Amino acid sequence: MSTSALMSLGTRAMFASYAQLQTTSQNIANANVEGYSRQQVELKTAMGQYTGAGFFGKGVDVATVTRSYDAFLTKEAASTVSAQFFDQTRLDQLNQLESAFPTGTDGVGYAANQFLNAMSDVANNPQDNSARQVVLTRAQDLASRFAAAGEQLDTIQSGVTQDLKNSVITVNGLTSQIAKVNEQIAAVQGFGHTPNDLLDQRDQLISQLSQYMQVTTIPADDGTLGVFIAGGQRLVLGKQAMQLAVVPDAYDPSRAGIGIVEANGTRSLPSDVLTGGSIGGLISFQDKDLQRARDLLGQMASAIASRVNEQQSLGLDLSQPSGTGAPIFSVGAPQALPANTNAKDASGNYAASVGLTVTDASQLQASDYELRADPSGTGYQLTRLSDGLVRTIADGDVVDGMQIDISATAPAATDRFLLQPVARAVNGMQVVLDDPRGIAAASPVTGTLGVANTGTASIASLRAVSTSIDPSLTANFSFTSDTGDYSWTLSDGTSGTGTWTAGQPISLNGFELQLNGVPKNGDTVSVGKTLYPASNNGNALAMVGIRDESLVGRTLQASGTLTGGTTITDAYADAIADIGVRVQSAKSSASISAATAAQAEQARSAKSGVNLDEEAARLIQYQQGYQAAAKVLQIAQQVFDKLLEVAAG
User: How confident is the model at residue 581, as a pLDDT?
Assistant: First the structure.
């Protein structure tokens, strides 16, 4: 074996140690660089040389430089980051939404109570114009609070749309960078060595992309990485990147969606494929939480406005001559919004349309509905989006307090409509009565007890309950027993009998008569047209009673009876609780997902990250190896010199 072989061994050893020193220094230099993966030199033994005395080693070769990388841990870290940003983004938006439901004296429930309580002063003194003015002021305050809440929700929606636009710009930049890195990786893939820094850069870009949306990745044979949204929609394939865009919602232009730009235009993506990241969080908040808040407020506004206007229409105002009360409130009209994919006629207008009319605001539910042709070919399929309840209806059917009318041109099988009976009610809520004398405090009928009555019965209240009331028809009640039996006659000649029960009103001719005490046999009560509306407070008392009525969210049973429902103050309290539960749930989810993401990143870093203590130890180790290799070269040189001396002598 020649001295040149010994020198070759030393040279190879020095080169290997130098490569290790260089890579270790690279690790130390990038220890604090986010996304950097620790690198290490892979060595292999050089093929031995055969001699008559056997195989002698030829040293060591540097095979390649690899990075510490675990595909599963890297994907897990990106996935958990996506969930973290989804939950945190939704929480941030919910915290803003919570401010639209103030508690205490700033809340809608308090304003509604103040308005109805102000009617008590009118009931005490129906002719007091200042008391009537207070009622209108309280009404204005109630309407303003509802409208302000609607405006606040619109502001939040505008913020969501702007955040989506900003996020889409960032996503498009990231996907373009990933495509560019893919191209660079594919260009050097044929060299037989992995471009570690480029791979780290791509992984870091995908991690950043995961902050905005949940993605999946699939490696290709050429070293590139395909990036897809859940559901299989590609974002990056090879060196080609797709561009996203913010598009109007398919039904409601005020809401935003995400579309993908294709050669023939922008195609909207279903919201259910955006399952993570801040974009997914914004879409989920917009479609679920924000819409729920709109529906809750709209349901309350529609119910209280409709009930007050109804009772107002049953009373008499102070105009000359007295007339039925004009509406006090108006609210935003219900909407039936066609999907932008619905069939259109030759003029570009939608071929079919749907009309929506509120028939009973107390039955309106805090929900939107989707209407489409029934797949069975009979009627239409109505889905209540708040709970997924599906019903088959026909043109003109009344469902949940609203009548649905289909146009003469029937919707196509693929047509869809979004029905919003309450979503925009608060935005249009206002007071439309500006004259205090227009408050209908008087009942159209007045009750009178017989002067010869011997019982303790007195008139607790007398109010009109139906527009079918005919005040010109005098009603006379004569009690025929001490147990509440009575007979009645109207001035038109009709008559009948009944039994009075304590606590239950006597209903006749569109009015309800409530008695206190106990009537005796022979006692009489007469109900006739109110002759002096200025001094009558029957309808004002009925207005005060609205405060304790369950007028929000009632349900019509198959038997035709109405059940459930809550008062306006309880409905507002329930709305606050609903939003509060969502906030608390989002806080828990955000906390859990943040902890999960931190653990996943810690696991990834444990595999790929740089430990400075370990690198410092390796640096000393490789330095010693380099010095030892240098010593081999020194000895080989000395041997060579000695041989030259011997040969010369």
Answer: 96
Token look-up 């069939």 returns 343
Largest Cα–Cα distance of the chain, in whole Å? 160
Q: Give me the residues of the chain with pLDDT under 50, please.
A: none
Bin 529: left if φ > 0, else alpha if -120 < ψ < 50, else beta. beta
Contact 338, 350 (CB under 8 A): yes
Q: Which helix (H) or strand (E) segment is 256 a member of?
A: strand 256-262
Terminal-to-terminal C-alpha distance of the chain: 22
Q: What is the CA radius of gyration of the chain?
A: 40
pLDDT at residue number 79: 92
Written in H, E and C, the secondary structure of 286-338 is HHHHHHHHHHHHHHHHHHHHHHHHHHHHCCECCCCCCCECCCCEECCCCEEEE
Query: CB under 8 Å to 269, separation ≥6 — which residues?
Result: 229, 233, 257, 258, 259, 260
Helix (H), strand (E) at residue 278: helix 277-284
**Which single residue is written with the structure tokens 């303790």?**
456
The single-letter code of the amino acid at 594 is A
Write out the DSSP string of 14-75: HHHHHHHHHHHHHHHHTTTSTT---EEEEEEEPPPEEETTEEE---EEEEEEEE---HHHHH
Give backbone dihedrals phi and psi of 80, rounded to 5 degrees, phi first: -70, -30
Q: Where are the domains positioned within the chain?
A: 3-39+610-648, 445-529
